[in-house]
TrEMBL record:
Pfam families: Cyclase_polyket (PF04673)
Name under which the protein is recorded: TcmI family type II polyketide cyclase
GO terms, biological process: polyketide biosynthetic process
Domain of life according to the entry: Bacteria
Amino acid sequence: MHMRSMVTVSKMDRDAIPEVSKLFAEFDSTEIPGLIGLHRRQLFIHHGVQVHLYDFVEKSDQAALEKAKSDPRMARLSVDLQPFVTPYEPETWNSPADSAASCFYAWEGEPEGRPGPTETTVTLARMEADAIPEVTEIFRDFDATAQLMGIRRRQLFVFKDLCIHIQDHARRDDADIAQKAATDIWFGHVLRELPRLAPQEPTPDGHAIRFYGWEAS
């Protein structure tokens, strides 16, 4: 199944994980995710940065999407999250659109029969926007062999001073391999070839922890 992804970035304290997970679990138990074409939702956290990954089916019902936007439960979720989830940069935030990251690189491996479910790893690193072309080239070269590592899909998003590196891999057992690959690429190839990108916080072990996941049945 081909999916289109959206990523938003916010600030969140790890102590809020139970409350935020509960709010999304209640919301995702309704019919609304299906109405908007949401196939999978995953929430990750690293050093107070929350990464919200939405995977949508390729073609969404626009009429249903517009109807869902006006559903009071959507507005109530936003209000209920406010004590726990805050804008990454409050001084420049005007609307939810200001939390959206931009995808600048996407790669998908060849399907192998019936691919089945995937696991996802997310890595955060600091990146200057003017490094995007060079970082893209480094990953494009690397992905010539990524299929051998069980990686099915790779996406790179940029948000403010962050690069969000998302890998979907074939099995749970591949998570360690995918995380090592992310570290090797970013903190090996990228920083070796682009030394001006100093490894600031989030730290070089920038693997985010997934604390919530939902997938359509």
